[in-house]
Amino acid sequence: MALTTLRARTTAAIAAAALATGGAAFAQQAQSQQGAQAQAQATAEIDPVTEAEIDQFVAANAEVATIAQSANQQLQQAEDKAAAQKIQANAQQSMVAAIQEKGLTPTRFTQIVQLARADEDLANKLRAKMEG
């Protein structure tokens, strides 16, 4: 039962990471007024995204999604908690490496996700690049 719980949590965490960086991350979400104000303030402090960063983000996002999908498949086959934790750690390391190989830091990657959630124009640019 503990392994099943770990698999579920790990799968959810990896899936959330993949979705947070994929097209679903840009879906409209209902937010309270207070939450929207806090997000607006946080995104106001983030540097604007350049065209080069959009290209880097899209390339990194594709890699991260592939890594997450592979990790989710591996988690279904994990025999115990230790194996599941190792799969999760390896996936996280691979995601960070993929983001860095595309020229972004993990922090900047996350900032772009945050900005895209708050800026519909940026979200549309990212979607267009991902689909094109």
Automatic annotation (TrEMBL):
<protein>
    <submittedName>
        <fullName>DUF4168 domain-containing protein</fullName>
    </submittedName>
</protein>
<feature type="domain" description="DUF4168">
    <location>
        <begin position="51"/>
        <end position="125"/>
    </location>
</feature>
<dbReference type="InterPro" id="IPR025433">
    <property type="entry name" value="DUF4168"/>
</dbReference>
<dbReference type="Pfam" id="PF13767">
    <property type="entry name" value="DUF4168"/>
</dbReference>
<keyword id="KW-0175">Coiled coil</keyword>
<keyword id="KW-0732">Signal</keyword>
<feature type="signal peptide">
    <location>
        <begin position="1"/>
        <end position="27"/>
    </location>
</feature>
<feature type="coiled-coil region">
    <location>
        <begin position="61"/>
        <end position="95"/>
    </location>
</feature>
